[in-house]
Amino acid sequence: MADLPRGAESPWETRTRLLVVRAGFDKPDTQFLLVDDRGRLVAQVDMAWPEYRVVLEYDGDLHRERDRYARDVRRRNSIRRLGWDVVVATKELVVRHPDELLERVASALLAGGATDLPI
User: Using N-to-C axis directions, what is the helix angle for 11-22 and 98-111, rounded to 10°?
Assistant: First the structure.
């Protein structure tokens, strides 16, 4: 498989990652590939903390289209079947409710076994 880009795929993904890192969380891996037990690709996710099995995805306005939304729900269900927690960020959460998003990230990381979190 060819190397994939490791950075953000949108400015809002970058803003989301910077919010998390500036809040004191460990830097997540970006454009992380999730594979099943047979080595088949299940998803490429925006950000992940693999050691805690936590994914952080940014949903932009395109995700509101019905077909895209349906695909995203199926994809997230597949990720959850692998035992990963999925945190979803939106522009509104990043801009207007960052504490709520950071609390959700912290909760997911704690559930995955993280300790010594900033909040």
Answer: 70
State the pLDDT at residue 83.
98
Name beta bridge partners: 43. 34
| pLDDT tens profile 67-103 | 888 899 999 999 999 999 999 999 999 999 999 999 9
Task: Decide if 101 contacts 89 (C-beta within 8 A).
Answer: yes
Q: Which residues share a beta bridge with 46?
A: none
* pLDDT > 70 in the chain, percent: 90
Element (H, E) at 33: strand 29-35
Would you tell me how many other CB atoms lie within 10 Å of the CB of residue 52? 18
Helix (H, G, I), strand (E, B) or coil at 97: coil
The fold for domain 11-110 equals Endonuclease; Chain A (3.40.960)
Question: Helices in 11-62 by DSSP H: which ranges?
Answer: 11-22
Two tokens at 3?
């190397």
